[in-house]
Design a protein that fits this description.
The radius of gyration is 21 Å and the shape is globular. It is an alpha/beta fold and 266 residues long. 33% of the residues lie in helices and 26% in strands. Helix 8 (204-219) links the parallel strand 7 (192-196) and strand 8 (224-229). Bound molecules: adenosine-5'-diphosphate (ADP). The site of adenosine-5'-diphosphate has 10 residues, from helix 3. Adenosine-5'-diphosphate binds at residues 46, 55, 73, 75-81.
Length: 266
Amino acid sequence: MSVKEITENLEIINENELPDEDKNISEAEKQEKKVIMEFKNVTKEYSRGDRVFYALKDANLTINEGEMVVILGPSGAGKSTLLNLLGGMDRLSSGEIFFDGKDISKYTDNQLTQYRAANVGVVFQFYNLIPTLTAYENVALMKNIEKNTMDPKEALREVGLEEHMHQFPSQLSGGEQQRTSIARAIAKNPRILLCDEPTGALDTDTGQDVLRLLQRMSKEKKRTVIMVTHNSSFADIADTVIRVKNGMIQSITANKNIKDASEISW
Ligand code: ADP
């Protein structure tokens, strides 16, 4: 046996001897996953009379760049609180929140505004489009917030709405309005795309179209998509599922068998 063969065999033996967790780490490293957001012991509390109420308690999580993450839980679990903290739309009571290695929980209001403008796109359940502006104009509005925006036409093409760009929201179906709001959110090329029950106002077929679009944003365009929902079917289309209940993170699971959005129903 040559020295080269012996060395190769040794490497195989060493790999096989690794404990399971180390194998996972080396697999993650092979895929070069980059952590984009991290929560360390994040708590958000409110006072209710003379009691302290925890909307979120001691939350720890990491989110990898380019993944599709679904935050799942019943109403009142703390999902919106989590989403608002990720998006710099709310302040924590204690803990640390890192974006790209920087602790945004220590940011001043101005820094946090810049963080939101440059890095965060948000999609809401009820679209929040301006009714007196066309789809194109609704997307073009983003130029007022962030200089480095996409051409609105390009953003609308990405969501399959180029042909409808001169229509007003009232002339678009619910699904088309939601796709317009997704175009608006991605127009400034945000590092994270936050979606709050994005299919909540849509029927199943149209909702599936929107989910397929969000899945494609993550898989093909490598955008980090973070969606909150009470709908447990959505867990199947995520890379990572974060379950919350009573302000506590119950579990964080990597999905081994990711389904296409067209395969799920609710
Ligand atoms: P979810 O999005 O899962 O429905 P939320 O994050 O909106 O849950 O809320 C979690 C809990 O925190 C709820 O009990 C809610 O009433 C409470 N909460 C949220 N915002 C406030 C607030 N501004 N003041 C007091 N309590 C709040």
